[in-house]
Amino acid sequence: MTAPTPAAPADSSRAPSSGAPTRVLVLNSGSSSVKYQLLDMEDGARLAAGLVERIGEETSRLAHTPLKEGGERRERTGPIADHAAALKAVAEELTADGLGLDSPELAAIGHRVVHGGLRFTEPTVIDDAVLAEIERLVPVAPLHNPANLVGIRTAMDLRPDLPQVAVFDTAFHTTMPESAARYAIDVETADAHRIRRYGFHGTSHAYVSRETARLLGKAPEEVNVIVLHLGNGASASAVRGGRCVDTSMGLTPLEGLVMGTRSGDIDPAVTFHLKRVAGMSEDEVDVLLNKRSGLIGLCGDNDMREIRRRVEEGDERAALAFDIYIHRLKKYIGAYYAVLGRVDAVAFTAGVGENAAAVREAAVAGLEELGLAVDADLNAVRSGGARIISPEYARVAVAVVPTDEELEIARQTFALVAPAP
Ligand code: AMP
Protein backbone atom coordinates (compact mmCIF):
# COMPACT_ATOMS: atom_id res chain seq x y z
CA MET A 1 0.00 0.00 0.00
CA THR A 2 1.27 3.45 -0.80
CA ALA A 3 2.26 5.14 2.41
CA PRO A 4 -0.06 8.09 2.81
CA THR A 5 1.55 11.47 3.17
CA PRO A 6 0.94 12.48 6.78
CA ALA A 7 -1.73 15.13 7.00
CA ALA A 8 -0.84 18.52 8.34
CA PRO A 9 -2.89 19.46 11.41
CA ALA A 10 -6.38 19.98 10.12
CA ASP A 11 -6.56 23.60 11.17
CA SER A 12 -3.39 24.47 9.37
CA SER A 13 -4.24 26.88 6.61
CA ARG A 14 -1.76 26.79 3.81
CA ALA A 15 -1.51 29.80 1.65
CA PRO A 16 -2.39 28.50 -1.78
CA SER A 17 0.26 29.17 -4.36
CA SER A 18 -1.17 31.57 -6.87
CA GLY A 19 -3.50 29.94 -9.33
CA ALA A 20 -3.48 26.58 -7.51
CA PRO A 21 -6.92 25.02 -7.12
CA THR A 22 -8.49 25.70 -3.73
CA ARG A 23 -11.93 24.09 -3.91
CA VAL A 24 -12.83 20.84 -2.19
CA LEU A 25 -16.01 18.84 -2.76
CA VAL A 26 -17.01 16.90 0.36
CA LEU A 27 -19.12 13.78 -0.19
CA ASN A 28 -20.91 11.79 2.49
CA SER A 29 -22.41 8.75 0.77
CA GLY A 30 -24.98 6.67 2.63
CA SER A 31 -26.76 3.55 1.41
CA SER A 32 -29.52 5.53 -0.28
CA SER A 33 -28.30 9.11 0.03
CA VAL A 34 -25.46 11.45 -0.82
CA LYS A 35 -24.82 14.67 1.12
CA TYR A 36 -22.38 17.13 -0.36
CA GLN A 37 -20.77 20.52 0.14
CA LEU A 38 -18.41 22.47 -2.05
CA LEU A 39 -15.99 24.68 -0.10
CA ASP A 40 -13.28 27.09 -1.10
CA MET A 41 -10.34 26.52 1.23
CA GLU A 42 -8.78 29.85 0.44
CA ASP A 43 -11.22 31.38 2.91
CA GLY A 44 -13.32 28.38 4.06
CA ALA A 45 -16.37 29.76 2.19
CA ARG A 46 -19.17 27.36 1.39
CA LEU A 47 -20.12 27.62 -2.29
CA ALA A 48 -22.90 25.04 -2.51
CA ALA A 49 -24.52 22.30 -0.46
CA GLY A 50 -27.11 19.66 -1.04
CA LEU A 51 -28.57 16.24 -0.53
CA VAL A 52 -29.75 13.43 -2.79
CA GLU A 53 -32.04 11.03 -0.95
CA ARG A 54 -34.04 7.88 -1.65
CA ILE A 55 -31.57 6.83 -4.36
CA GLY A 56 -32.89 3.76 -6.19
CA GLU A 57 -36.54 4.58 -5.49
CA GLU A 58 -39.21 6.18 -7.66
CA THR A 59 -39.38 9.14 -5.30
CA SER A 60 -35.72 10.20 -5.26
CA ARG A 61 -35.10 13.84 -4.46
CA LEU A 62 -32.19 16.18 -4.99
CA ALA A 63 -32.16 19.43 -3.01
CA HIS A 64 -29.39 21.78 -4.04
CA THR A 65 -28.53 25.15 -2.52
CA PRO A 66 -26.02 27.48 -4.13
CA LEU A 67 -24.59 29.50 -1.27
CA LYS A 68 -23.39 32.47 -3.26
CA GLU A 69 -25.36 35.63 -2.74
CA GLY A 70 -28.71 35.51 -4.53
CA GLY A 71 -28.55 31.72 -5.05
CA GLU A 72 -31.85 29.95 -4.58
CA ARG A 73 -32.55 26.42 -3.39
CA ARG A 74 -33.55 24.07 -6.23
CA GLU A 75 -35.21 20.71 -6.02
CA ARG A 76 -35.53 17.77 -8.44
CA THR A 77 -37.81 14.84 -7.80
CA GLY A 78 -38.20 11.60 -9.71
CA PRO A 79 -36.25 8.37 -9.95
CA ILE A 80 -32.48 8.51 -9.55
CA ALA A 81 -31.38 4.93 -10.18
CA ASP A 82 -28.04 4.69 -8.39
CA HIS A 83 -25.13 6.62 -6.90
CA ALA A 84 -23.62 7.21 -10.34
CA ALA A 85 -26.82 8.89 -11.50
CA ALA A 86 -26.99 10.83 -8.22
CA LEU A 87 -23.48 12.22 -8.60
CA LYS A 88 -24.14 13.04 -12.23
CA ALA A 89 -27.20 15.03 -11.17
CA VAL A 90 -25.16 16.81 -8.48
CA ALA A 91 -22.49 17.63 -11.08
CA GLU A 92 -25.18 19.12 -13.35
CA GLU A 93 -26.50 21.31 -10.55
CA LEU A 94 -23.00 22.52 -9.71
CA THR A 95 -22.32 23.21 -13.40
CA ALA A 96 -25.50 25.31 -13.59
CA ASP A 97 -23.99 27.50 -10.85
CA GLY A 98 -20.67 27.78 -12.67
CA LEU A 99 -19.11 25.39 -10.13
CA GLY A 100 -18.83 22.26 -12.28
CA LEU A 101 -16.70 19.29 -11.30
CA ASP A 102 -14.59 19.82 -14.41
CA SER A 103 -13.47 23.18 -13.03
CA PRO A 104 -9.68 23.59 -12.77
CA GLU A 105 -10.35 25.21 -9.39
CA LEU A 106 -11.37 21.88 -7.87
CA ALA A 107 -8.39 20.59 -5.86
CA ALA A 108 -9.81 17.32 -4.52
CA ILE A 109 -12.84 15.36 -3.43
CA GLY A 110 -12.97 14.48 0.28
CA HIS A 111 -15.02 11.43 1.25
CA ARG A 112 -16.39 10.64 4.66
CA VAL A 113 -15.60 6.98 5.34
CA VAL A 114 -17.15 5.54 8.46
CA HIS A 115 -14.77 2.70 9.30
CA GLY A 116 -11.01 2.86 8.87
CA GLY A 117 -10.22 0.10 11.37
CA LEU A 118 -6.76 0.35 12.92
CA ARG A 119 -5.02 0.83 9.59
CA PHE A 120 -6.18 4.36 8.86
CA THR A 121 -5.12 6.82 11.53
CA GLU A 122 -4.94 9.79 9.15
CA PRO A 123 -6.80 11.09 6.11
CA THR A 124 -5.51 9.15 3.14
CA VAL A 125 -5.28 9.71 -0.62
CA ILE A 126 -7.31 6.92 -2.18
CA ASP A 127 -5.71 4.39 -4.53
CA ASP A 128 -6.53 0.77 -5.35
CA ALA A 129 -4.81 -0.52 -2.22
CA VAL A 130 -6.77 1.90 -0.01
CA LEU A 131 -10.02 0.87 -1.71
CA ALA A 132 -9.18 -2.78 -1.05
CA GLU A 133 -8.51 -2.06 2.63
CA ILE A 134 -11.81 -0.17 3.05
CA GLU A 135 -13.48 -3.16 1.40
CA ARG A 136 -11.72 -5.51 3.83
CA LEU A 137 -13.35 -3.60 6.69
CA VAL A 138 -16.89 -4.22 5.40
CA PRO A 139 -17.50 -7.05 7.91
CA VAL A 140 -17.06 -4.59 10.82
CA ALA A 141 -19.10 -1.82 9.12
CA PRO A 142 -21.62 -3.67 6.95
CA LEU A 143 -24.06 -0.78 6.74
CA HIS A 144 -21.66 2.06 6.10
CA ASN A 145 -18.47 1.11 4.28
CA PRO A 146 -20.18 -0.40 1.19
CA ALA A 147 -22.11 2.85 0.65
CA ASN A 148 -18.96 4.91 1.16
CA LEU A 149 -17.16 2.74 -1.40
CA VAL A 150 -19.88 3.21 -4.00
CA GLY A 151 -19.61 6.98 -3.55
CA ILE A 152 -15.82 6.90 -3.90
CA ARG A 153 -15.81 4.68 -6.98
CA THR A 154 -18.45 6.82 -8.65
CA ALA A 155 -16.49 10.01 -7.95
CA MET A 156 -13.29 8.38 -9.20
CA ASP A 157 -15.03 7.46 -12.47
CA LEU A 158 -16.22 11.04 -12.80
CA ARG A 159 -12.83 12.66 -12.17
CA PRO A 160 -10.11 9.96 -12.39
CA ASP A 161 -7.40 12.62 -12.55
CA LEU A 162 -8.36 14.31 -9.28
CA PRO A 163 -7.01 13.35 -5.84
CA GLN A 164 -9.73 11.65 -3.81
CA VAL A 165 -9.18 11.59 -0.07
CA ALA A 166 -10.79 9.35 2.55
CA VAL A 167 -11.42 10.95 5.95
CA PHE A 168 -12.29 8.28 8.50
CA ASP A 169 -14.83 8.55 11.33
CA THR A 170 -12.70 6.20 13.39
CA ALA A 171 -9.31 7.88 12.85
CA PHE A 172 -9.45 10.30 15.78
CA HIS A 173 -10.08 7.41 18.16
CA THR A 174 -7.09 5.31 17.10
CA THR A 175 -5.06 7.01 19.86
CA MET A 176 -7.14 5.26 22.54
CA PRO A 177 -4.98 3.10 24.78
CA GLU A 178 -5.54 -0.65 24.66
CA SER A 179 -7.08 -0.46 28.15
CA ALA A 180 -9.95 1.61 26.68
CA ALA A 181 -10.10 0.02 23.24
CA ARG A 182 -10.23 -3.66 24.20
CA TYR A 183 -13.28 -5.52 25.40
CA ALA A 184 -12.62 -7.94 28.23
CA ILE A 185 -13.22 -11.01 26.11
CA ASP A 186 -10.97 -13.85 24.95
CA VAL A 187 -8.06 -12.15 23.22
CA GLU A 188 -7.62 -14.72 20.41
CA THR A 189 -11.30 -14.57 19.48
CA ALA A 190 -11.27 -10.77 19.60
CA ASP A 191 -8.17 -10.52 17.41
CA ALA A 192 -9.34 -13.13 14.92
CA HIS A 193 -12.49 -11.13 14.26
CA ARG A 194 -11.07 -7.65 14.86
CA ILE A 195 -13.47 -7.12 17.75
CA ARG A 196 -12.53 -3.99 19.68
CA ARG A 197 -13.81 -0.53 20.39
CA TYR A 198 -13.23 1.71 17.36
CA GLY A 199 -15.51 4.68 18.12
CA PHE A 200 -17.27 6.89 15.58
CA HIS A 201 -18.12 10.60 15.01
CA GLY A 202 -14.33 11.08 15.18
CA THR A 203 -14.29 13.98 12.72
CA SER A 204 -16.73 15.84 14.95
CA HIS A 205 -14.90 15.00 18.20
CA ALA A 206 -11.61 16.18 16.63
CA TYR A 207 -13.10 19.44 15.38
CA VAL A 208 -15.05 20.23 18.54
CA SER A 209 -12.22 19.43 20.96
CA ARG A 210 -9.92 21.73 18.98
CA GLU A 211 -12.53 24.51 18.73
CA THR A 212 -13.11 24.21 22.48
CA ALA A 213 -9.40 24.79 23.14
CA ARG A 214 -9.56 27.80 20.83
CA LEU A 215 -12.58 29.11 22.77
CA LEU A 216 -10.54 28.83 25.99
CA GLY A 217 -7.67 30.68 24.33
CA LYS A 218 -5.39 27.64 24.66
CA ALA A 219 -3.59 25.20 22.39
CA PRO A 220 -5.27 21.77 22.01
CA GLU A 221 -2.22 20.17 23.70
CA GLU A 222 -2.91 22.16 26.86
CA VAL A 223 -6.50 21.14 27.54
CA ASN A 224 -8.53 18.11 28.57
CA VAL A 225 -12.03 18.09 27.14
CA ILE A 226 -15.10 15.89 27.44
CA VAL A 227 -16.95 16.18 24.12
CA LEU A 228 -20.65 15.27 24.08
CA HIS A 229 -21.81 14.82 20.47
CA LEU A 230 -25.58 14.62 20.93
CA GLY A 231 -27.37 14.25 17.62
CA ASN A 232 -29.77 11.53 16.54
CA GLY A 233 -26.71 9.31 16.96
CA ALA A 234 -24.79 10.31 20.10
CA SER A 235 -21.35 9.70 21.53
CA ALA A 236 -19.04 11.06 24.22
CA SER A 237 -15.28 11.23 24.15
CA ALA A 238 -12.49 11.99 26.59
CA VAL A 239 -9.78 14.05 24.89
CA ARG A 240 -6.47 14.62 26.67
CA GLY A 241 -4.20 17.25 25.13
CA GLY A 242 -5.82 16.89 21.70
CA ARG A 243 -5.72 13.08 21.67
CA CYS A 244 -8.71 10.83 22.22
CA VAL A 245 -8.26 8.52 25.23
CA ASP A 246 -11.77 7.05 25.40
CA THR A 247 -15.04 7.19 23.51
CA SER A 248 -18.48 5.74 24.10
CA MET A 249 -19.20 4.01 20.77
CA GLY A 250 -17.53 0.66 20.24
CA LEU A 251 -17.24 -2.00 17.56
CA THR A 252 -20.34 -0.39 16.07
CA PRO A 253 -22.20 2.87 16.80
CA LEU A 254 -24.63 0.97 19.06
CA GLU A 255 -22.63 1.24 22.29
CA GLY A 256 -22.71 4.09 24.78
CA LEU A 257 -25.22 6.89 25.22
CA VAL A 258 -28.98 6.64 24.80
CA MET A 259 -29.62 7.83 21.23
CA GLY A 260 -32.58 8.75 19.04
CA THR A 261 -33.27 5.15 18.02
CA ARG A 262 -30.35 3.14 19.50
CA SER A 263 -30.25 1.65 22.98
CA GLY A 264 -26.63 2.47 23.75
CA ASP A 265 -25.12 0.37 26.58
CA ILE A 266 -27.04 -2.78 27.35
CA ASP A 267 -26.26 -6.11 29.02
CA PRO A 268 -25.28 -8.31 26.04
CA ALA A 269 -27.27 -11.11 27.65
CA VAL A 270 -30.42 -9.20 26.68
CA THR A 271 -29.72 -10.27 23.10
CA PHE A 272 -29.47 -13.98 24.07
CA HIS A 273 -32.66 -13.59 26.03
CA LEU A 274 -34.50 -12.01 23.10
CA LYS A 275 -33.44 -14.91 20.89
CA ARG A 276 -33.94 -17.77 23.34
CA VAL A 277 -36.99 -16.59 25.22
CA ALA A 278 -38.71 -14.09 22.92
CA GLY A 279 -37.90 -16.15 19.79
CA MET A 280 -36.52 -13.19 17.87
CA SER A 281 -34.10 -13.64 14.98
CA GLU A 282 -30.66 -12.02 14.79
CA ASP A 283 -31.98 -9.43 12.33
CA GLU A 284 -34.99 -8.65 14.49
CA VAL A 285 -32.76 -8.03 17.51
CA ASP A 286 -30.50 -5.85 15.35
CA VAL A 287 -33.47 -3.75 14.20
CA LEU A 288 -34.87 -3.56 17.76
CA LEU A 289 -31.63 -2.23 19.26
CA ASN A 290 -30.61 0.05 16.38
CA LYS A 291 -33.95 1.36 15.12
CA ARG A 292 -36.63 0.82 17.76
CA SER A 293 -34.78 1.59 20.99
CA GLY A 294 -33.32 4.71 22.58
CA LEU A 295 -35.70 7.65 22.84
CA ILE A 296 -38.09 6.34 20.17
CA GLY A 297 -38.35 2.98 21.90
CA LEU A 298 -38.89 4.57 25.29
CA CYS A 299 -41.54 7.13 24.34
CA GLY A 300 -42.33 6.95 20.62
CA ASP A 301 -40.46 10.12 19.68
CA ASN A 302 -36.78 10.57 18.85
CA ASP A 303 -36.85 14.32 18.31
CA MET A 304 -35.76 16.10 21.48
CA ARG A 305 -37.95 19.11 20.65
CA GLU A 306 -41.05 16.92 20.67
CA ILE A 307 -39.93 15.12 23.83
CA ARG A 308 -39.40 18.42 25.67
CA ARG A 309 -42.81 19.65 24.51
CA ARG A 310 -44.42 16.50 25.89
CA VAL A 311 -42.46 16.76 29.16
CA GLU A 312 -43.69 20.34 29.59
CA GLU A 313 -47.25 19.06 29.13
CA GLY A 314 -46.77 16.49 31.88
CA ASP A 315 -46.38 13.39 29.69
CA GLU A 316 -44.91 10.70 31.97
CA ARG A 317 -43.46 8.45 29.27
CA ALA A 318 -41.61 11.35 27.70
CA ALA A 319 -40.37 12.44 31.15
CA LEU A 320 -39.02 8.96 31.87
CA ALA A 321 -37.32 8.79 28.45
CA PHE A 322 -35.70 12.17 29.14
CA ASP A 323 -34.55 11.04 32.60
CA ILE A 324 -33.00 7.84 31.23
CA TYR A 325 -31.22 9.85 28.51
CA ILE A 326 -29.82 12.29 31.10
CA HIS A 327 -28.88 9.58 33.60
CA ARG A 328 -26.70 7.83 30.98
CA LEU A 329 -25.17 11.13 29.87
CA LYS A 330 -24.26 11.99 33.45
CA LYS A 331 -22.66 8.60 33.96
CA TYR A 332 -20.39 9.22 30.99
CA ILE A 333 -19.46 12.72 32.19
CA GLY A 334 -18.48 11.19 35.53
CA ALA A 335 -16.62 8.29 33.91
CA TYR A 336 -14.62 10.53 31.58
CA TYR A 337 -13.88 12.93 34.40
CA ALA A 338 -12.28 9.99 36.19
CA VAL A 339 -10.46 8.85 33.03
CA LEU A 340 -9.01 12.34 32.45
CA GLY A 341 -8.30 13.22 36.10
CA ARG A 342 -8.40 16.92 35.27
CA VAL A 343 -11.08 18.41 33.04
CA ASP A 344 -10.85 21.90 31.54
CA ALA A 345 -14.08 21.85 29.55
CA VAL A 346 -17.21 19.90 28.76
CA ALA A 347 -18.38 20.70 25.22
CA PHE A 348 -21.91 20.06 23.93
CA THR A 349 -22.38 19.67 20.19
CA ALA A 350 -24.67 18.36 17.38
CA GLY A 351 -28.45 18.82 17.04
CA VAL A 352 -29.40 18.17 20.67
CA GLY A 353 -26.18 19.42 22.27
CA GLU A 354 -26.24 22.71 20.36
CA ASN A 355 -29.94 23.42 20.74
CA ALA A 356 -31.46 21.74 23.78
CA ALA A 357 -30.74 23.99 26.79
CA ALA A 358 -32.81 21.66 29.00
CA VAL A 359 -30.50 18.73 28.19
CA ARG A 360 -27.37 20.76 28.98
CA GLU A 361 -28.83 22.02 32.25
CA ALA A 362 -29.99 18.57 33.38
CA ALA A 363 -26.76 16.82 32.38
CA VAL A 364 -24.65 19.12 34.54
CA ALA A 365 -27.12 19.58 37.44
CA GLY A 366 -25.72 18.41 40.76
CA LEU A 367 -22.12 18.23 39.55
CA GLU A 368 -21.00 21.42 41.32
CA GLU A 369 -18.57 19.41 43.46
CA LEU A 370 -16.82 18.47 40.23
CA GLY A 371 -16.53 22.14 39.31
CA LEU A 372 -19.34 21.90 36.76
CA ALA A 373 -22.26 24.32 36.48
CA VAL A 374 -24.25 26.19 33.84
CA ASP A 375 -25.40 29.79 34.05
CA ALA A 376 -29.15 29.77 33.33
CA ASP A 377 -29.06 33.01 31.30
CA LEU A 378 -26.03 32.03 29.22
CA ASN A 379 -27.51 28.58 28.64
CA ALA A 380 -30.76 30.09 27.37
CA VAL A 381 -29.05 32.24 24.70
CA ARG A 382 -29.75 30.95 21.19
CA SER A 383 -26.74 31.39 18.96
CA GLY A 384 -25.00 29.60 16.14
CA GLY A 385 -21.57 30.38 17.55
CA ALA A 386 -19.25 28.64 19.99
CA ARG A 387 -19.83 29.94 23.50
CA ILE A 388 -19.19 29.29 27.17
CA ILE A 389 -22.31 28.77 29.28
CA SER A 390 -20.75 28.14 32.71
CA PRO A 391 -20.61 30.90 35.34
CA GLU A 392 -17.37 32.80 35.85
CA TYR A 393 -16.60 31.00 39.13
CA ALA A 394 -16.87 27.44 37.72
CA ARG A 395 -13.60 25.47 37.66
CA VAL A 396 -14.58 23.66 34.47
CA ALA A 397 -15.85 25.51 31.41
CA VAL A 398 -19.12 24.21 30.00
CA ALA A 399 -19.31 25.13 26.31
CA VAL A 400 -21.62 24.86 23.33
CA VAL A 401 -19.48 24.30 20.25
CA PRO A 402 -21.31 23.80 16.93
CA THR A 403 -19.77 20.94 15.01
CA ASP A 404 -18.82 21.23 11.33
CA GLU A 405 -17.86 17.85 9.95
CA GLU A 406 -17.87 19.04 6.33
CA LEU A 407 -15.42 21.85 7.04
CA GLU A 408 -13.20 19.44 8.98
CA ILE A 409 -13.24 16.90 6.11
CA ALA A 410 -12.48 19.68 3.62
CA ARG A 411 -9.61 20.98 5.78
CA GLN A 412 -8.08 17.54 6.22
CA THR A 413 -8.48 16.81 2.51
CA PHE A 414 -6.95 20.11 1.43
CA ALA A 415 -4.07 19.84 3.90
CA LEU A 416 -3.16 16.54 2.25
CA VAL A 417 -3.35 17.62 -1.38
CA ALA A 418 -2.50 21.31 -1.42
CA PRO A 419 0.99 22.07 -2.62
CA ALA A 420 3.27 23.10 0.21
CA PRO A 421 3.82 26.87 0.20
P1 AMP B 1 -28.14 15.71 14.28
O1 AMP B 1 -28.11 14.22 14.19
O2 AMP B 1 -26.90 16.31 14.85
O3 AMP B 1 -28.61 16.38 13.01
O4 AMP B 1 -29.28 16.06 15.37
C1 AMP B 1 -30.64 15.79 15.10
C2 AMP B 1 -31.44 15.90 16.39
O5 AMP B 1 -31.23 17.17 17.01
C3 AMP B 1 -32.94 15.84 16.17
O6 AMP B 1 -33.38 14.50 16.15
C4 AMP B 1 -33.47 16.57 17.37
O7 AMP B 1 -33.69 15.63 18.41
C5 AMP B 1 -32.36 17.48 17.82
N1 AMP B 1 -32.67 18.91 17.66
C6 AMP B 1 -32.56 19.67 16.58
N2 AMP B 1 -32.96 20.94 16.84
C7 AMP B 1 -33.33 20.96 18.15
C8 AMP B 1 -33.83 21.97 19.04
N3 AMP B 1 -34.05 23.21 18.64
N4 AMP B 1 -34.11 21.60 20.31
C9 AMP B 1 -33.89 20.34 20.73
N5 AMP B 1 -33.42 19.36 19.95
C10 AMP B 1 -33.14 19.66 18.68
TrEMBL record:
UniProt xrefs under CDD domains: ASKHA_NBD_AcK_PK (cd24010)
Entry note: cofactor: Mg(2+). Can also accept Mn(2+).
GO molecular function: kinase activity
Pathway of action: Metabolic intermediate biosynthesis; acetyl-CoA biosynthesis; acetyl-CoA from acetate: step 1/2
Keyword presence, Nucleotide-binding: yes
Location(s), subcellular: Cytoplasm
Top class in the EC scheme: transferase
Amino acids binding ATP: K35, H229, L230, G231, N232, G233, D303, M304, R305, G351, V352, G353, E354, N355
Residue sites binding substrate per the record: R112
InterPro entries listed in its UniProt record: Ac/propionate_kinase, Aliphatic_acid_kin_short-chain, Aliphatic_acid_kinase_CS, ATPase_NBD
EC number of the protein: 2.7.2.1
Domain of life: Bacteria
Biased composition (Low complexity): 1-21
Catalyzed reactions per annotation: acetate + ATP = acetyl phosphate + ADP
Main location: cytoplasm
Pfam families: Acetate_kinase
Swiss-Prot/TrEMBL keywords: ATP-binding, Cytoplasm, Kinase, Magnesium, Metal-binding, Nucleotide-binding, Transferase
Residues the entry annotates as binding Mg(2+): N28, E405
Cited function: Catalyzes the formation of acetyl phosphate from acetate and ATP. Can also catalyze the reverse reaction.
Assembly mode: Homodimer.
Name listed for the protein in its UniProt record: Acetate kinase
Organism: Streptomyces gulbargensis
Lineage: Bacteria, Bacillati, Actinomycetota, Actinomycetes, Kitasatosporales
Gene that encodes it: ackA
